[in-house]
Amino acid sequence: MTDPQQPAAPPPHPFAERSTPGPQDGGGRGGARSTAAMALGLAGLVTVIVSAFYLPLGAVLGALLGVAGAVLGVIGLVSRRRRGAAITGLAAGALAVLAALVLGVISTTMLVGSLADPVRSGGAPGSGASSGGGAQRAAETLWPENMATGGIVFDRDGVVRSDAPESGAPEPAESPAAGSETDSETHAVRVYVDYRCPYCSEFETANGDALQQLAESGRATVEIIPLAFLDRVSPDNYSSRASGAMACVVDAQPEAAWQVHRHLFDPAVQPSETTNGLDDDALIDAVDEAAGGANERVRSCISSQRFVPFAQALNGWVFDNPVPGAQDPQLRVTSTPFALVDGVPYTGAADDAQAFSAFLAEQGVAVGGAS
Q: How many domains are contained in the chain?
């Protein structure tokens, strides 16, 4: 008699999930990936949000964390472990990437706009709307003598003298223009400069002698308009301090203005665009050297930064308005050096003396001979 057989256990269902993950099925790793996806996705999203307020470049890190979170979230969903964490990681990662892209578009648009429309560091001269002072400087914006046009006008007798407009003057007076009723043979040359601008130094080196000859010959007035737009990339507002120092010279010792103007472009004096320039005491020494001795009015003016608000306000007015007297009524200053003859802009290289001489000839101005 044989023993009765015990009923055989049914074979496992081939598609049934194991109740406890074994060492070979990767279930533990799948759950860990889902958790990591959630952590990375949320971290990326928080990083992007914080970078929008404090450090825009942090959005790049946030986007990378978001991508990692999204990828791990997808892997977690495939492994079907901790799906809630995987979905959270995927969603947060995707939002982080999207937010980073939006922040990047906004930042790029703002950068392109600032390059297309250069520094607006203030309002009209005398308005007090300047890069360094705002409304609080309105009462301090004093004009120097001999700069009624906003620039320094040179003719055969040196600086053209003018009274200082009252504080709060809305805009510069009309610059000397070619074809005026007083002298139809006199041309008008105008040059916008920034004393920190390296290309302005190149222009001065290449063309300074020719401009001086033109002014001394009486064939043209030469107007220099000092700007301060490079203050926004400098650590010490050197551009406006140098322009203010130049205004001090024009106001109190105008006979030295041309020598000082040229000396400020000397490589031994001019700083680079992003390093500290001369402090006020060193500026006084530089002016003293160029002028053959600066008088006490000039020294105290530079030391007190008397005309720095004027320089900043003039800079704002120039960039907020079309070029006065230009043949194109919509022409604006877009960079320095920016030179015009009788309202026609020079478009050649700053350091090409031959090109500038040819441009002068095209406008009917001959250096060293009759116009």
A: 2
Q: Radius of gyration over alpha carbons of the chain, in Å?
A: 34
The helix/strand/coil state of 338 is: strand
In a shared domain, residues 69 and 165: no
Tens-place pLDDT, residues 134-145:
433 444 588 999
What stretch of H or E contains 162?
A: none
Answer whether 118's CB lies under 8 Å from 334's CB: yes
Please state, in angstroms and rounded to a whole number, the distance separating the CA atoms of residues 171 and 117.
20
CA separation for the pair 105, 152 (Å, rounded): 42
DSSP structure class, residue 105: H
Judgement on whether residues 159 and 287 belong to the same structural domain of the protein = yes
| pLDDT at 310 exceeding the cut of 80 | yes
267 near 201, Cβ under 8 Å?
Answer: yes
Instruction: Determine the residue type at 306.
Output: R
Q: Does residue 320 register a pLDDT over 50?
A: yes
* Same domain assignment for residues 262 and 155: yes
Confidence band for 123, pLDDT divided at 50, 70 and 90: very low
Q: Are residue 284 and residue 236 in the same domain, yes or no?
A: yes
Domain that holds residue 216: 134-362
pLDDT at 245: 98
Contact 356, 205 (CB under 8 A): no
Q: Which residues contact 174 (CB under 8 A, 6 or more apart)?
A: 149, 324, 325
36-92, pLDDT tens digit by residue?
767 876 776 677 676 665 556 667 776 787 688 677 667 766 776 677 776 886 787
Burial 5-29 (b: 16+ CB within 10 A, else e): eeeeeeeeeeeeeeeeeeeeeebee
